[in-house]
Amino acid sequence: MALPRLLSCVVACTLLLPAADAGLFDVPEPQLIYEGSAPGLGEGVLVIRRAEDFDRAIDLLDPGFGAQRPDMRKLTVLRIVGRPRPDACHDTVLKSVSTRNLTATVELEQRVPAADCPCSGPARPPRAWLLTVARVVRRARTQITDVVVPCSEARQTAEPDGPALLLQGSWDHDPGGEILDDAKTYRAALARLGAGKRGPEVDFNTHQVLVVTGRPRQNGCRKTRVVEVDVTGAEATVTVEEIYPGKGQMCTQLFTLPKAFVYRIPRGVRQIRVTTREVRGSGP
């Protein structure tokens, strides 16, 4: 991800000030700090104004948030989630974000393929974005416009060769990455992950499965997330973030199995390189 970058949008600076600071003042434009997906989250926009709320709000994002945390004393963060994508042709585009007084308005475009367009591939989780806006923003609303696009354009969004998150789970397995290149091995892994028949189908003629496993989690504060999966040629590069308790952080004594992330990747990948970095959480 090339972060941060500015989102093209219109910002209204009609903000309320204390009497001593009468008049208008410069406010930061909305800035995009994350693009990805949000497995398991519903459509809408969440206004985040505290650091501890930010950490909870980004927990389910895929890939995980790997950029520098915004200064929540000076900024407000919006977590925007689009509609679920039922197949490879449906998609959501973030068109603009504007702010006026205490309210942010988010405009999304839901791109729907023409009725005669044959679409395949498994359902995909909804698109997700994180944006920073002025600290004064306390509310947000979304406006979604449905746009029917030609089949040729809709199929371009399918991203057949990019890594796609299929599911997350936990299992008793060594940390690292592993490629599953046949249906029998894949189904056995799903059973160990407790997914059973819930796991999405994979066409092993064109794709295979990458399972990334984190470290064991010894307390309630421990978390594991994948912040990047990049496929270049025959190699998949994965960056994993292991979050440990920070200084003075109170954590429940709870041993949890290592977290596992299951991705669909192109058939030609033969090598996996997993980089793990440790991060300390915030205090109470």
Descriptive overview:
The chain is mainly beta and 284 residues long. Helices cover 8% and strands 44% of the residues. The protein contains 3 helices and 17 strands. The chain is flat and about 55 Å long. Residues 1-25 have low confidence and may be disordered.
Kindly list the characteristics that best describe this protein.
mainly beta; five-stranded antiparallel β-sheet; disordered N terminus; flat; 44% strand; four-stranded antiparallel β-sheet; 284 residues; 3 helices
Give a summary of the structure in a few sentences.
The chain is mainly β and 284 residues long. The chain contains three helices and 17 strands.
Helix-strand blueprint:
Layout: E1 5-6, E2 31-37, E3 44-48, H1 51-57, E4 75-81, E5 91-100, E6 103-113, E7 127-134, E8 139-149, H2 151-155, E9 164-170, E10 176-180, H3 183-192, E11 207-213, E12 217-219, E13 223-232, E14 235-244, E15 253-256, E16 259-266, E17 271-280
Parallel strand pairs: 6-8, 14-17
Antiparallel strand pairs: 1-2, 2-7, 3-4, 4-7, 5-6, 9-16, 10-11, 11-16, 12-15, 13-14
Tell me the number of strands: 17
**Helix coverage percent:** under 10%
- The number of helices is 3
What oligomeric state best describes the polypeptide chains here?
single chain
Strand content bin: 35-45%
User: Taking Cα atoms only, what radius of gyration do you get, to the nearest Å?
Assistant: 21 Å
Calculate the mean pLDDT score and round it.
Answer: 84
| Widest sheet, order of strands | 1-2-7-4-3
